[in-house]
Design goal:
Blueprint: H1 3-27, H2 32-44, H3 58-81, H4 86-93, H5 96-107, H6 114-128, H7 140-162, H8 168-175, H9 180-191, H10 194-202, H11 205-232, H12 235-241, H13 244-257, H14 263-292
Helix pairs in contact: 1-4, 1-11, 1-13, 2-3, 2-9, 2-11, 3-7, 3-8, 4-13, 5-7, 5-12, 6-14, 8-11, 12-14
């Protein structure tokens, strides 16, 4: 992996990690599904009027938009609303890292070296520790919704690998149009008009900031850059890098919400970081050998 691409991936992971705290800020002000629906509304408009639709079948755009908007972020935002802390939600979502590698092996016929297998195993141990935490930062129902989001995230990574996309920014913009209405409908089906009434009465600069931050830097810029890298590098290379997200997610939760980091959480973070280092070490060694050979 080129150094500049590694730097971009880390920067995106940092932004995404801190975004979990921004989501928590938003759900304190409005219905979680409406919050996510507004995120994708602004990610689509007005950009869609100035960007030509990518040469991708409409079915792929719709599938990606629904899976990404509803499956990943609708469910993840709902998990935060249901009692999972910003830091822990970011950890749970990153189970998509080893799910993504598994999908890569099963559907893309990618090969895993022993080094990467060890790295993933170490990372999985770190993620497994979250189920032993009893400090009130997770709830069972919240974990279930966050886990569904993790599976959805792995599915869209597989879509990016299987489909030829020439204009990734246009793809993100046009696929986002399929997310808002289903999210608004789900909110109405579960809570009636209460969420919309809350939105009208609670609009303020905090809720506006949460929506716009998620729409523009996180969704449009972040996923444009990340999907470009996913299309270029194997899932077995990109998936471990997503494990940086929970480290930044926990840091943001500590800074903004004073989340306590006990020994269990600290050990989980260390295992995750170790897994990333092991997984990337093979690529770095191969690059050095090519240069010196």
């Amino acid at each position: 992996m080129k150094k500049i691409h590694l730097f971009v991936a880390i920067a995106v992971a940092c932004m995404w990690g801190f975004n979990f705290s921004i989501i928590k800020l938003g759900v304190s002000e409005m219905d979680p599904l409406i919050l996510t629906g507004l995120r994708f509304t602004f990610a689509t408009f007005p950009a869609i009027f100035f960007i030509k639709r990518p040469q991708v079948p409409i079915s792929i755009l719709a599938f990606y938009g629904l899976t990404f908007g509803v499956g990943v972020w609708g469910m993840l935002t709902l998990s935060i609303h249901l009692g999972v802390s910003a830091g822990m939600s970011s950890l749970i979502l990153q189970s998509s890292a080893f799910i993504g590698v598994l999908f890569g092996v099963l559907f893309l016929k990618e090969k895993l070296s022993m080094t990467r297998k060890v790295g993933l195993f170490v990372s999985i141990l770190g993620l497994a520790l979250i189920f032993t935490i009893e400090d009130g930062s997770v709830t069972l129902v919240g974990i279930l919704f966050a886990s569904f989001a993790a599976i959805s995230l792995s599915i869209i990574s597989l879509v990016i690998k299987k489909v030829t996309i020439n204009d990734m920014f246009a793809f993100v913009v046009w696929s986002s149009i399929f997310a808002p209405i289903p999210l608004f409908v789900l909110s109405f089906m579960t809570n009636g008009t209460s969420g919309f009434n809350m939105l009208m009465s609670n609009v303020n600069y905090l809720s506006a900031f949460s929506v716009l931050f998620q729409a523009y830097p996180v969704t449009l810029l972040g996923y444009f850059l990340w999907n470009k890298l996913v299309a270029q590098y194997p899932m077995s290379t990109m998936a471990p890098l997503t494990l940086l997200v929970p480290l930044f997610g926990l840091l943001g939760s500590v800074i903004f919400y004073n989340e306590q980091i006990g020994m269990t959480k600290l050990l989980a973070c260390l295992l995750l970081l170790s897994g990333i280092a092991i997984g990337l070490s093979e690529s770095l060694i191969q690059k050095i050998q090519l240069k010196t050979g």
